[in-house]
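The protein record quoted in full:
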Amino acid sequence: QVQLVESGGGLVQAGGSLTLSCVARGLIYSHYTMGWYRQAPGKQRELVAGISSGGNTNYVDSVKGRFTISRAEAENTISLQMNSLKPEDTGVYYCQFTQFGSFYWGQGTQVTVSS
């Protein structure tokens, strides 16, 4: 079992910045992927950014150049630095961990960007 503990999020004005962090705890092996998903009201959950244990990253087009996902391997922690935030970035952000075909989710943290 893997538990995910998220932190960060909150209310920010458009153009501002926020950082989300997620710590994975439990039985963790060397090969896994982690990422951040978000769900806006009335919309499906979407992948925002992902990172593999090898350090490969991917982003949804709408956040490229504004968001940066990073990983602290020793702490099994990922962070999402979000800059130049837009109102359309508003939503609940979920940390996700995948290992050997098993998926784990954090509890979600609210990000609200006011115009």
